[in-house]
Structure prediction request, 191 residues.
Amino acid sequence: MATKKQQELDNLQQRIVDEKICPELAAQATQLVFGDGNPDADLVFIGEAPGKNEDLQGKPFVGAAGKFLNEMLEVIGLKREDVYITNIVKYRPPNNRDPLPEEKNAFLPFLEAQLDIIKPQLTITLGRHSLNCFLPDLSIGQVHGQPKRFEGRVYLPLFHPAAALYNGGLRQTLIDDFAKIPVILQKLRTT
Prediction:
């Protein structure tokens, strides 16, 4: 039986379809990629948009970047089932182009609603698009790995796992930043 939170997430997902959010994106995508994981999670990871593998499987972060994300979760003693993973934009942009500002804006209320339902202790933004949705004035290069409190939520900006796959120098930075997650969570639980 689905939990109340899962039911709310399912209803939210249906609203995206019913309200025909970004119909031009939806038309060229295989399916909506809403989110995956534990609706009661303390951690929510937010990427920018689904890629080819995500579009085919209907789940976020299932390609090479997702495999790397899973490995980093294991290092800090977590599994995918322990966290919730989603993207700003819920349909794959054509040819994996960056999401357009109007696409991000169209999906942002649904992403905010996802966070309101799940109520994570820590929201982890993966990459600059995700960071700039919530903290538009910050640069990922300057604030990665540093928790930021904003409008009642705590965000941890991290580099996108895909960037670390293409840029070997970022890989260790991302692993080091990821290692801070349990410490930050512990602090949040005791405050």
